[in-house]
Design a protein that fits this description.
Blueprint (H helix, E strand, L loop, with lengths): L10 E6 L19 H8 L19 E3 L5 E3 L6 H5 L24 E5 L6 H12 L3 E3 L8 E4 L5 H11 L10 E4 L1 H9 L29 H7 L12 H9 L17 H6 L3 H12 L6 H6 L53 H5 L3 H16 L3 H16 L7 H6 L5 H13 L3 H8 L1 H10 L6 H9 L5 H7 L4 H8 L1 H4 L6 H4 L7 E6 L7 H17 L4 E4 L8 E5 L1
Parallel strand pairs: 1-10, 4-5, 4-6, 6-7
Antiparallel strand pairs: 1-8, 2-3, 9-10
Helix pairs in contact: 12-13, 12-15, 17-18
The protein binds 3 DNA strands through helix 12, helix 13, helix 15 and helix 18.
Keywords: DNA damage, DNA repair, DNA replication, DNA synthesis, DNA-directed DNA polymerase, Lyase, Metal-binding, Nucleotidyltransferase, Nucleus, Transferase
Family: Belongs to the DNA polymerase type-X family.
EC number: 2.7.7.7
Length: 558
DNA sequence: TTGACAGCGCATCTGG
DNA sequence: CCAGATGCGG
DNA sequence: GTCAA
């Protein structure tokens, strides 16, 4: 969508409407900022200085003089920080009869196999389950909801045992088989998990995936199942059923609507600002707005595949020296290697919906979006890459081990993937979104011109709202504009061409003219253009204006 | 355990 | 005033 | 966040 006229050098780009962090899953992939501060401060790392990184300060030791007096050392210790922190040690403390609202097993009836608590481990598990509201039944009654089988037992054992020892004719209607891990995991996640997961299947039982083809199974087993058969591993209703008992308040509504309180009207009312602009451009000069497309084709960049991992196009040119030479496109290396443009990721999203890991991707996206909002460049990138590889994966990833095999997916994300598969959610994500400190910070960070440094400072100074800021803080020109247009900047642009792919946070124009070798003449034109649009009332604010006559971009809002 | 993960333009701040 | 450092954005 | 040194 972005018109990249690959004209040699002289090019002036006009960026209208500074976008701001996206709000929802539709987010398109955009680049992050380089703001290491967030890294350390958010992770709560120790103030160890970064000696080498000459280019960046260590936020931890940044002493800020507070306008209102005193000075303080920036050090984030809660909120996002805590989340970003490596406090991943999940403690499974032993509680005695947890609070009512945490009794996830309430209403459930567990029948253990073996049906006693002689085994200390099993006894422990039973106790635990009871603490969480489960009822322990030693008779295979009709109200049994779960038959929890020791991992040491196999499906055949069970069947044999049930039929021969217990003389069971039929299993309780609602009962489903799970292995001993199931209750444990449920407790770990504080919620009823999907009992259909393969990992909870009783050893030797038919798993969901292999379920249908009965032909595949050993005739023996198939036979044994007989009467009890289809209710056994086929735990179709299990999850939902159990969930019902529990109440579905759990279902997370991680998504908050992006408040589409847009001002389309303006676009509507205005016949078409964009068209008008283009028209202006064309009349203004004989700029070949059309040719561009043609000349561009041939040099089309590399294919669009190779999203994720490739990244390591580390053929990196030795020195960061930027040659004024007329190199074509961007850098020699990866240049645009990332899937930062919707057009490169197949914005139509065919990939997403069909992918077996769609749901996982969706949630990881939210994590990525979150980190983008808090402007944690690196984590944002990390999630993006992980998502990239996940998108290329054709089989469904269910466990952490499985996930960690994949490139760009380490332990942390692997664990998250597993949790997502298990719980259809991510507690960290929900927590992150809830935390009050974070919310304030997030709010501030969405102001154009406010980054981690300033945002954190304000948040720690106790400011809570945009009004607070307007009243008690020295705002830069851009920040004022950022606040004034807070909602606008936070909203995406739905223009047709753009919508085709997704939606856009902004629109970029690249102005070129053949045969020009410097930007000077183009700047003149740019100036005219901006002046015109401003007078027309289309452009409302200038955020970054080119300086000198050597470059290049104008940032503003319309 | 630690540093890289792109580099750059513009705005603002800091300090001489 | 200016130069360098820092913050921010895409 | 992941990865490599």
């Amino acid at each position: 969508m972005q018109r990249n006229h690959s004209a040699p050098q002289p090019s002036v780009s006009v960026s209208v409407k500074p976008n701001k962090p996206l709000t929802r899953k539709t987010s398109l992939l955009r680049y992050d900022t380089s703001t290491p501060p967030s890294e350390s401060s958010f992770t709560g790392k120790t103030p160890s200085v970064l000696p080498s990184s000459s280019q960046r300060p260590n936020p931890e030791r940044r002493v800020v003089s507070d306008p209102t007096g005193g000075s303080l050392v920036l050090k984030n210790s809660t909120g996002i920080a805590s989340m970003l922190q490596k406090n991943q040690k999940r403690k499974r403390e032993a509680i005695k009869l947890v609070p009512e609202d945490q009794q996830i097993f309430r209403g459930l009836d567990f029948f253990y196999l073996p049906a006693d608590d002689k085994n200390p481990k099993r006894k422990m598990r039973i106790t635990k389950a009871k603490e969480y509201g489960a009822k322990w039944t030693t008779e295979l009654e009709d109200d049994v909801t779960h038959i929890v089988v020791d991992n040491s037992l196999t499906y055949e054992h069970i069947m044999k045992y049930l039929k021969e020892t217990l003389k069971v004719q039929a299993l309780p209607k609602r009962a489903i088989f799970v292995n001993e891990d199931y209750p444990i995991d449920c407790i770990a996640f504080r919620r009823i998990l999907d009992a259909k997961q393969d990992k909870y299947a009783v050893k030797g039982a038919v798993t969901e995936s292999e379920e249908k083809p009965a032909s595949q199974r050993s005739p023996q087993a198939a036979q044994d199942e007989e009467d009890i058969s289809r209710r056994t591993p086929p735990r179709e209703d299990s999850a939902s059923q159990a969930r019902d008992v529990e109440g579905e308040e759990e279902t997370q509504e991680i998504s908050q609507n992006p408040s589409p309180a847009r001002n389309f009207q303006r676009e509507m009312g205005f016949n078409d600002p964009l068209a008008e602009m283009i028209e202006f451009v064309q009349t203004k000069k004989h700029l070949p707005l059309d040719d561009e497309e043609n000349e561009e084709r041939p040099s089309s960049r590399d294919s669009m595949q190779d999203p994720g991992d490739s990244d390591d196009s580390r053929e990196r040119s030795p020195s960061p020296v930027r040659k004024p030479s007329k190199k074509k496109h961007r850098g020699p290396k990866g240049s645009f290697n990332q899937n930062n443009f919707s057009c490169m990721t197949g914005g139509t999203g065919e990939t997403t919906s069909s992918n077996p890991n769609a749901r996982t991707i969706e949630i990881l996206q939210e994590m990525g979006d979150f980190y983008e909002q808090v402007k944690d460049q690196w984590r944002t990138r990390a999630y993006r890459m992980a998502i990239g590889t996940l998108k290329k994966t054709t089989n469904k990833i269910r466990t952490a081990e499985e996930a960690q095999e994949l490139p760009k997916i380490g332990k942390r994300i692997a664990d998250k993937i597993e949790e997502i598969v298990l719980t259809d959610g991510l507690r960290r994500l929900e927590f992150a979104k809830q935390d009050p400190t974070d919310r304030v910070l997030q709010k501030f960070l969405k102001i154009y011109g406010v980054g981690p440094s300033q945002g954190l400072r304000w948040a720690q100074q106790g400011h809570k709202t945009l009004e607070d800021l307007k009243a008690n803080v020295n705002l830069t020109a851009n920040q004022k504009i950022g606040i004034a247009h807070y909602d606008d900047f936070d909203t995406r642009i739905p223009r047709e061409e753009v919508t085709a792919l997704a939606s856009s946070g902004d629109i970029d124009f690249l102005i070129t003219k053949p045969s020009t070798t410097t930007t000077t003449p183009l700047l003149t034109f740019l100036d005219d253009l901006v002046r015109h649009l401003t007078s027309t009332g289309f452009l409302v604010a200038a955020l970054a204006v080119p300086r000198g006559d050597s470059s290049s971009k104008w940032h503003g809002a319309c």
